[in-house]
Amino acid sequence: MNGLQTYQVFPAIPEPLTFLETLARNLWWCWHIDAIELFRRINPSLWRQSGRNPILFSTLVPQTRLDELAKDEGYLAHLERVKRKFDAEVPAENNIQDIDREIAYFSMEYGLHESLPLFAGGLGVLAGDHLKAAADKQMPLVGVGLLYRQGYFHQYLNKEGWQQEEYPDTDIFNLPVSRARNSAGDVIQISVIGPDGEIRAIVWKIYVGCIPLLLLDTNIPENPVEVRNITDRLYDGDPNKRLAQEVLLGIGGLRALEAVGITPKVVHMNEGHSAFCGLERLCQVRASYNISLKEALEIVPRTTVFTTHTPVAAGHDEFPKNLVEPYVRPLQECLGATSDEIIAWGQANGVGADAPLSMFVLGLRLSQYHNGVSELHGKVARKMWSHVWPGWPVDEVPIHHVTNGVHSPSWVSVENAQLFDRYLGPEWYLHLNNPDVFYGIDQIYDEELWQARRMSRTRLIRSCRELLVKQYARRNAPLEMMEAAENTLDPDVLTIGFARRFATYKRATLLLRDVERLEAMIMSESRPVQFIFAGKAHPKDDEGKAVIKKLVGFCRKAEIRQRIVFLEDYNINIARDLVQGVDVWLNTPRRPLEASGTSGMKAAVNGVLNVSVLDGWWCEGYSPDTGWAIGQGEEYLDHEYQDLVDSQALYNILENGAIPAFYERNNGDAPNGWIKMMKSSMKMALVQFCTHRMVAEYRDLFYTPALEMHAKITADGAIEARNRLVQRERITSHWDRVQVKPVVKNQEGPFRVGQTMHMTTEVNLGDLQPGEVDVEFFYGKMKPDGSLSSGQTQPMVVSEELGNGRYLYSAELTCDISGRFGYTARVTPGNDDLLKFTPGLITWA
Predict the structure, then answer these.
(1) Which one of 3.40.50.2000, 3.30.530.20, 3.40.50.620, 3.40.50.11540 gives the CATH number of domain 429-689?
(2) What is the C-alpha separation between 806 and 828, in angstroms, rounded?
(3) Is 625 within 8 Å of 680 (Cβ atoms)?
(4) Strand partners of residue 379
(5) For 522-537, what is the mean pLDDT?
(6) Domain 738-844 annotated CATH 2.40.160
(7) When comparing pLDDT for 484 and 268, which is higher?
(8) What's domain 99-404+700-718's architecture?
(9) In this predicted structure, what is the pLDDT of residue 98?
(10) Within 10 Å of residue 44's Cβ, how many Cβ atoms?
(11) Cβ contacts of residue 181 below 8 Å, gap of 6+?
(12) Delimiting residues of CATH 3.40.50.2000 domain(s) in the chain
């Protein structure tokens, strides 16, 4: 039927309950257990049925129930308690324009809650946790993303165990979104130019506590069908649509911010998907300060942060030049550059004019602050992208690291949260840098903590049974299988969880290398083990789907299927149940392909012990007190051999470590050794791997310096940008005359520990002055192949002016350790980190 008009009816909320509507429209509720309970206690069954979506839930609750609650003194006291906390953390004047939103955070996906399907996996959940922690810290930040009408796919398996995908439409009227408006109160629509004309998008807003999140949506009548579909699915396999999404996110996202009255001083790009925002920002900066492109390029990179999560070069998006050109051609006038010049910013050195545009390289070129998401990932990224900075030692490539964290209150179980409230204080999650956290965790009675663990495990198993019954019903399974599903898993058995994206490098079937050994563990009468698996493969990843099929085939074996299951359609709710309820979190990536891996952190917050390869975050989190390491960080070129070695190590850990520790019950039924490890795991995760620590590091390392630079470089009509450009052009034009002679020591070796060396080198600076450069003595221990294991630097100072632009530089170095060392000297631009790492501006002796 055509021409239908619509209207929506919500319950009549009694006046004492009106705060419920405010609460439902701000995702603040989803990480405050007391607020979640405020909804759940209205009607627990309907709350589950609604998918824990308070807006949909409100349409299911009978009016009579609301009228009852309006007179329930206990409920009203609960509501008032939540309201006071909400009012304290979310300012009443919390409109987009009311706060100077200095930092704009761009991400392709946001995993905030299962009721908001804007995420695919770990990257999105990390972005969601970033916004929540920023809200807790009252940071002046705004998020930017896309509103997907179908989101990421829902997964179900056919009878053979092969993954199938479905894309149900999201009912936008059941989401806590509203149209973004400008300061005049007008709704906002922005547009970008694509290959076939204008791509229009409306802008929605969602509040995450005090943090607004703007979401762009092309599904509007003004657009033709192919344009309306741009924002239908996350990570669409069509490269044309994927490129359109990333242009809309980057260029359209900056335009949306401008339309609502926000001009960010700092932009944070969460992965390369949003790198096009750098182009639009250059246009805006040029127009704002009436400066040249070269001058704008002195501002934008210095105030941009770029975080990469991908340790594999092939994992970064690249687009053919002919696809990109129609999007950048309209920017030629505002940028003052040709489309070839613009595209070249995203092409690696020496690849040729027709090479594809790399979103990663574009992100690097238009930012000064770069970071990986764990210490190991930072090392991997520096090595992988060292070619962008020729002449620099790999260790000094300007890609740093900020190890990911998790938003603890979003992932902690109800039982553990109650313990934390009692022993750490009701606002424990806001003060995790306090050393009292360690003391408070240690004070929890072992019996209380173990009881909390048993309750969480029991709740997980109940949820698993419900999900399994639904899975079997969907496949029209026989009645006996349906009945068996209702008794699957045992709440008293050691439970191991494995849940993540099913890419082949995650090695989900590493456990199946020795089936007999695995089955013996599962079927042990005295010390049994049970496993819960979950996860999705990308729709185009047939290898990943084959891994799922193999695993599911094993799970369906009649003799073991009561103790090993695969849960379909992995999402945030299933993840939450798993990290709260399992005893061991299993992670088996092929090192070093796991950038970070936050699921293990979420589990550790709940006292779950990790069994993991030393990859990603576990290199920093592992100790014998917190879990077990599979191997010792070995990396073999022969993947088959590595899988064999790692699988044997895994079996040994389970048989000789985890299983005996869990079942060792000397005093009653509480395993004291295991509980001690649980407490160590909690302390490690809460302090080292929380998002509050993470966003504080982003603030201190990147946001604050970038904000200070923005104030300095844009003052007085951006005169400092002009000065920086003059200095860049001066340095660049004279650099070819810079020469450094070999270092001369004051005496020959060998030296003894404690002795001091005096070194000199003659440097020809040509027309440059000593104050414009850094001259450094560079040294380090020698490796057998003649390279340095890790270079260190010692500043050298002018000791004599020799004339004609020549200077004698000197330094003293005390020998503090023994060994064989290599050394040299180098010159780089001084006083400016962006200029310092400009390719070509480094000269070695």
Answers:
(1) 3.40.50.2000
(2) 16
(3) yes
(4) none
(5) 96
(6) no
(7) 268
(8) 3-Layer(aba) Sandwich (3.40)
(9) 60
(10) 11
(11) 187, 188, 260
(12) 99-404+700-718, 429-689
pLDDT in the model for residue 94: 59
Angstrom CA distances, 465 to 462, 484, 487, 548, stand at: 5, 9, 7, 20
Looking at every residue in the chain, the average pLDDT score rounds to 94
Q: Where do the CATH 2.60.40 domains begin and end in the chain?
A: 738-844
**Cis before 592 (ω within 30):** yes
CA dihedral of 525, 529, 534, 535, whole degrees rounded to 10: -130
Which of these, 462, 405, 461, lies nearest to 433 by C-alpha position?
A: 405
The strand pair at 266-270 and 197-208 is best described as unpaired
pLDDT band for position 96 (cuts 50, 70, 90):
low
678 to 119, 573, 622, 673, 691: CA distances (angstroms): 30, 23, 13, 9, 20
- The token duo for 68 is 């009852």
Q: Is 824 left (phi over 0), alpha (psi -120 to 50) or beta?
A: beta
- The pLDDT, as a whole number, for residue 6 is 66
Kindly report, residue by residue over 391-440, the tens digit of the pLDDT.
999 999 999 999 999 999 999 999 999 999 999 998 999 988 887 888 99
HEC letters along 603-667: HHHCCCEEEEECCCCHHHHCCCCCEEEECCCCCCCCHHHHHHHHHHHHHHHHHHHHHHHHHCCCC
Angle, helix 321-328 to helix 239-247, in steps of 10 degrees: 30
Length of the chain: 845
C-alpha 109/C-alpha 126 separation (Å) is 9
Helix (H) or strand (E) holding 208: strand 197-208
**35: helix, strand or coil:** helix
CA–CA–CA angle 595, 597, 603 (5° rounding): 165
569: closest CA among 90, 164, 145? 164
pLDDT tens-digit readout, 472-491: 888 888 888 888 889 999 99
Q: What percentage of the chain exceeds 70 in pLDDT?
A: 98
394 token code pair: 């790999």
Q: Encoding tokens for residue 611?
A: 């069994």
Residue closest to 590 by CA, chosen among 565, 564, 613: 613
Rg (CA), the chain: 29
Closest by CA to 597, choosing from 501, 672, 531, 700, is 501
Exposed / middle / buried, residue 395 (Cβ in 10 Å: 0-12, 13-18, 19+):
middle
pLDDT of residue 358 exceeding 60, the answer is: yes
What does the DSSP 8-state code read for residue 191?
E
Helix (H, G, I), strand (E, B) or coil at 151: strand
414-424 and 446-474 helices, crossing angle to 10°: 160
Backbone φ and ψ of 643, nearest 5°? -60, -40
- Judged by average pLDDT, the poorest of 234-243, 270-279, 440-449, 780-789 is 780-789
* 728 has pLDDT over 90: yes
Q: How far apart are CA 42 and CA 40, in angstroms?
A: 5
Which pLDDT tens digit goes with each residue over 289-325?
Answer: 999 999 999 999 999 999 999 887 777 899 999 999 9
Query: Dihedral angle at the C-alpha atoms of 378, 383, 388, 394, nearest 10 degrees?
Result: 90
Mean pLDDT, range 626-654, rounded to an integer: 94
Structure tokens at 789: 């294991």
**Which residue type occupies 752?**
R
